[in-house]
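Structure request: Glutamate receptor, Melia azedarach.
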Amino acid sequence: MKLSWLLMLVIFSHELCLNEIKAQTSARPRVVNIGALLSFKTTIGKVAKVAIEAAIEDVNSDPATLGGTKLNLAMQDSNHSGFLALAEALHFMEGETVAIIGPQDSVTAHVISHVANELQVPLLSFSATDPTLSSLQFPYFVRTTQSDLYQMAAIAEIVNHYGWREVIAIYADDDHGRNGIAALGDKLAEKRCRISFKAPLSPDATKDEITDLLVQVALTESRILVVHTHFSWGLVVFHVAQYLGMMGTGYVWIATSWLSTQIDSNSPFPPELIDDIQGVLTLRMYTPDSVLKREFISRWRNLTFVEKSSRAVGLNAYGLYAYDTVWVLAHAINSFFEQGGNLSFSKDSRLSQIHGELQLNALNIFNAGNLLLDSILRTNMTGISGPIKFNSDRNLKNPAYEVINVFGTGYRRIGYWSNYSGLSVVPPESLYSKLPNRSIKNQKLYTVIWPGQTIQKPRGWVFPNNGRHLRIGVPNRVSFGEFVSVKGNDMISGFCIDVFTAAINLLPYAVPYKLIPFGDGRNNPSCTELVRLITAGVYDAAVGDIAIITNRTKMVDFTQPYIESGLVVVAPVRTLNSNAWAFLRPFTAPMWGVTVVFFFAVGAVVWILEHRTNDDFRGPPKKQVVTIFWFSFSTMFLAHKQNIVSTLGRLVLIIWLFVVLIINSSYTASLTSILTVQQLSSPIKGIDSLRSSNDPIGYQLNSFARNYLVDELRIDESRLVPLNSPEEYAKALKDGPHRGGVAAVVDDHAYAELFLSTRCEFSIVGQEFTKNGWGFAFPRDSPLSVDMSTAILKLSENGDLQRIHDKWLLRSACSSQGAKSEVDRLQLKSFWGLYVLCGLAFLLALFIYLMQIVRKFGRHCPEDIESNGRSSRSARLQTFLSFVNEKEDEVKSRSKRRHTEGTSYRNEDEVLSNSNKRHTEKLSSN
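Returned structure:
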């Protein structure tokens, strides 16, 4: 009994202890300590201080937020010093501080984040926008504002939207500036744009340093300038630029959000400052309109009045995010307590081993810091800056910016950018319910007033070192002058030069240039070497018959091709004229044999199928054989008179007539081509047959054809013969490989066509075995190459390119209309064989017929021959001709009648003879 009471007492005591521990654990503290690191004298610091204090007051006045717990804020001024900020952060961590709002700038955040990681104290920064702070290196750093990664993406889309390709970056040479510009470079690269010149400035740059830097910028090519600086000297950049004449027409200035923050914080903006930034584009973090936001804006005047500042501070976007940061932390702390979080701290044993005056062992580790950090990142609330929710990269979701154009005494919003849908003229939240659409036609901004008060979009670049003419290298050719012809230093003409001149005249701006011949004038120069000299800075561009090939595109940028070309094989050819037996050439001997056999076979098959039922296929054997032959060949012309009555016979005939139709059509088409198209023949059939032989091959001296034949086709160099002019081409081809010449010449199609236009004994054999074109060469990433490509396309579309081609390259010696008409007119020599065959058939038929007539005449008219035997030859001939003229039936009838009369005469004679004989016998008996 005692034992059971004792056991019950132990169980009761254990439950009591558990309840006490649970009550202690779940009990919320009366105060939670948080810190804030600001620079009170800066633009952002002034606004943030007021906003944070207002937020602390609002949180503490609402018991429902933290369940009666109060936030105890300790705010320290870092005085824009990273060292002081670090010292103040360490001071916070000596006490029981669960989180720190700040630091204000990105440079300090990099340093303090390492301390926060070690002591597990979350940092919530509303203004450190360096995109690298979101990396896994700083897990306890939480950005409650928008990252510069998205701001740089917005700038890249603006640059791409207006068709620019290069920008100049002016930035502070610290972590904030360098990392922001690095992000800009990555985003520009995604749009196939780039930063052409980086202009870093010291974080404490003087006016003289800024002046020296902008002078360097003015000497560069690009006129798109992105300014990513500090508030302290950002406006000085524009003031100096105004002084240097860099705020006029042709320039484009894009400032990051620091400028819009300055404008919002100093409203109205001083006139002397607004004049320096006319036409500038800047970005402002977008916060959607809401009741909460409007109430806070209306309240702001009272808040700043309490501060009794000498000058009222305008509310900017950082102030909105600073206010919301306090509420994010408050909601996270409330969630922390609801999950059973406990405010407990411990010492870092490693710090106690460090000896010295710093007393680092006083720093505390927040044991539940990881739980609070998790609560912060899971925050999902709506503040005065809009919905607040973090994505997997620990950045705010749905980042967006306003695009601001400074003009007049203020600014105008020309559109928005959001990570969801890009550039638009409608607020981003109205697009979130739709599918994202980043098509070119959907990216819109309102009209911009650019520097110089113009609405015409700046070109974005100028020629560096204004006043210097472009040095354009031109190959000094000694052959094919129709393409490029150099006569003295100032007399350069030809097809390529005319195309270049026409294209450059289409540009919307003037381009001063000077054509400089390249080459010794005795041999054709190497275009590859000319292109290389562009990379060496000797020439600014190259114009001429420059083929666009792989190794050249690695050195320079080419324009759109203005003439299509490729390597071809030119070889001697002979004309295959049609002869008397040309009509046999459409079919080969086996084809002729099979066709004839099938004609006989069809006649035999139809005869077998029709013989027993069709009277047309019956009769004497001789007649049936003739019928078979006649029916067979008459099917070619559908002229047979025999009717087909059997189903099988008709089936066979239908199929055969279809075959005959195809054979007739094919024969007619082939024969037409043979008789009307000039046929050319060459032992070289193309590049493959040329490779398989061992004959020498000609090529144009210093052309890329040699390298292609050796490197790509693996043709031995000993077979290659350099030729320098069309005359050398012709002589080498005529001599041939057996007399010191070449079997063929491999050259660009454009040269080959011009060479063949006056030399009909040669021709292109086979197909082009490379595909390329000719273009103008410019340095890498030169914007002039893009504009010239557009101009070349315009020349092609309006027909000017074809007219220039016809002016210089149209030749008709070997392809004139007269020569073509001569080929189209058919001559007797192509058909006399047919006429001979036909004549022989006529003679043979007449001879056989004559033999038959003579035989019939001798058989049917022997009496006439005998009766006229003693007559003259003319009488006999007359008799024969009368016989020939008689109808066959009359001859047969007369012959039959004569035969009948002859028989009756013989019978009468026999009767008379028998009567006389009997009378004689009777007289003798008497």
